[in-house]
């Protein structure tokens, strides 16, 4: 799909704001913000000295938050910003261009309240990124990269230099991240358990040979605008929008995980979204003896995953998984996922083994990888706590790799 077609047929109507913007910028940064009145000043301070930057700040709230204190704080944050920074242009009642600093950087404040609950932050990100894509397409933003983050992070000093070093075949890059310590000891312990789970899962996927072995944290995401248009933008979801977009982007081009610099993520507990760091910390804090009762996928799940991924190329010759794989747990779970139809479809549309394997990886994507892990867990391989997990680290090297990656 061309960018022109995406912008014409799939982008949000807010891209029309672009025709009122006549300046030129080097970079564009998209930031959704709901109930971030206290976090915004610190976030903006982390990029205050940047030159030639346009920040698209999508101040938003879900419909279910109407007439709540959170919605009032959200509206107040927009009012405060419009009072703090000089007004350059009123584009609409809910869109204002502000002078961010004296170095040619600007703040575009777009207000969208009472968003449908089911679309939530996904729609907020899509509005901002669609507008960014339009501005890049019209060469009003010179860099081809759409920067995405959240209002409760702290960006590193060289954040905007990274995109200049990326190869052209990369669809998206992911910044390294670390969580800010939580001052509450109990919540901090929950944060550490949760953060280890993030690294454990990605390191296990990497060990198994999955092409989807990367973190899916929206505040660390850098997307090439061509790939963004080809993937039809952020899905309109109240959570998980980053996971599903990256799942599509990985089928278009490379996903590059950066080793540095680090983005500092918030370590606070929160209930503003259905899942993610904030809700996870709150949930873990409610568990009695979390060290014993907060559970991780059994490492043998990834042993089965590794076996399945290693078998994919051989199916080009046999075409029959049952001839290649003995009956058992893995076969049962793959059958439940519909693997036989996927193999038949890939064989029918492939002229080489490489093409067949690509078809299979496009079918067995990040979503089906997770479904396989869940099937293995639900049928036999029950999740285990961290103590039990660490007892197996000599048998499964990715357990120690996760701990090492986290400490780095």
Describe the fold and architecture.
- The protein is α/β, with parallel strands linked by helices.
- Helices cover 44% and strands 18% of the residues.
- The strands form 2 sheets. A 9-stranded mixed β-sheet has the order 3-4-5-2-1-6-8-7-9, with helices on both faces.
- α5 packs across α8 (277-285), α5 packs parallel to α10 and α14 (339-348) runs antiparallel to α15 (353-363).
- The radius of gyration is 22 Å and the shape is globular.
- The two termini are 40 Å apart.
- The relative contact order is 0.12.
Sketch the topology as an H/E string, one letter per element. Answer: HEHEHEEEHEEHEHHEHHEHHHHHHHEHH
Major sheet attributes: 9 strands, mixed
Adjacency order of strands in the biggest sheet: 3-4-5-2-1-6-8-7-9
Protein structure class: alpha/beta
**Residue share in β-strands:** 15-25%
Q: Helix count?
A: 18
Percent of residues in helices: 40-55%
Could you give the count of β-strands?
11
Question: What overall form do the CA principal axes indicate?
Answer: globular
- Overall mean pLDDT stands at 93
Which properties best describe this structure?
two-stranded antiparallel sheet, about 400 residues, 9-stranded mixed sheet, globular
Brief sketch in words of this structure:
The protein is an alpha/beta fold. Helix content is 44%, strand content 18%.
Task: Give the secondary structure arrangement, pairings included.
Elements: H1 3-9, E1 27-33, H2 40-45, E2 53-62, H3 69-84, E3 87-92, E4 95-99, E5 106-115, H4 120-137, E6 145-148, E7 170-179, H5 185-208, E8 221-224, H6 225-230, H7 241-249, E9 254-265, H8 277-285, H9 290-293, E10 295-296, H10 300-311, H11 315-318, H12 321-324, H13 329-337, H14 339-348, H15 353-363, H16 366-379, E11 384-385, H17 386-390, H18 397-407
Parallel strand pairs: 1-2, 1-6, 2-5, 7-9
Antiparallel strand pairs: 3-4, 4-5, 6-8, 7-8, 10-11
Helix pairs in contact: 5-8, 5-10, 5-18, 13-16, 14-15
């Amino acid at each position: 799909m061309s960018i022109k077609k995406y912008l014409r047929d799939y982008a949000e109507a807010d891209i029309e704001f672009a025709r009122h913007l006549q300046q030129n910028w080097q970079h564009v940064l998209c930031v959704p913000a709901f109930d971030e009145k206290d976090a915004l000043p610190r976030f903006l301070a982390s990029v205050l000295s940047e030159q030639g930057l346009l920040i698209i700040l999508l101040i938003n709230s879900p419909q279910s938050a109407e007439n709540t204190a959170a919605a009032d704080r959200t509206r107040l944050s927009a009012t405060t910003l419009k009072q703090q920074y000089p007004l350059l242009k009123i584009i609409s009642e809910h869109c204002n261009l502000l002078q961010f600093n004296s170095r040619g950087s600007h703040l575009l404040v777009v207000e969208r309240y009472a968003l449908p609950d089911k679309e939530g932050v996904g729609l907020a990100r899509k509005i901002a990124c669609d507008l960014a894509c339009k501005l890049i397409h019209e060469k009003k933003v010179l860099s081809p990269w759409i920067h995405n983050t959240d209002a409760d992070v702290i960006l590193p000093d060289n954040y905007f230099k990274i995109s200049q070093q990326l190869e052209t075949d990369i669809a998206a890059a992911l910044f390294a991240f670390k969580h800010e310590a939580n001052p509450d000891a109990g919540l901090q312990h929950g944060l550490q358990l949760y953060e280890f789970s993030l690294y454990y899962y990605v390191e296990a996927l990497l060990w198994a040979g999955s092409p989807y072995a990367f973190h899916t944290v929206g505040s660390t995401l850098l997307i090439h605008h061509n790939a963004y248009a080809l993937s039809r933008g952020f899905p309109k979801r109240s959570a998980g929008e980053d996971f599903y977009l990256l799942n599509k982007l990985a089928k278009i081009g490379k996903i590059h995980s950066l080793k540095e610099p680090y983005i500092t993520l918030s370590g606070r507990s929160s209930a503003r979204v259905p899942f993610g760091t904030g809700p996870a910390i709150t949930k873990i804090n409610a568990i009695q003896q979390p060290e014993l009762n907060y559970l991780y996928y059994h490492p043998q799940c990834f042993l089965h995953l590794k076996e399945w991924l290693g078998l994919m190329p051989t199916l080009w010759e046999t075409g029959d998984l049952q001839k290649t794989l003995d009956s058992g747990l893995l076969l049962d779970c793959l059958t439940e996922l519909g693997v036989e139809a996927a193999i038949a479809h890939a064989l029918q549309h492939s002229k080489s083994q490489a093409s067949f394997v690509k078809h299979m990886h496009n079918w067995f994507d990040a979503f089906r990888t997770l479904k396989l892990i869940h099937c293995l867990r639900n049928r036999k391989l029950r999740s285990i706590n961290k103590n039990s997990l660490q007892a197996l680290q000599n048998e499964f090297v990715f357990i120690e790799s996760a701990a090492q990656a986290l400490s780095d």
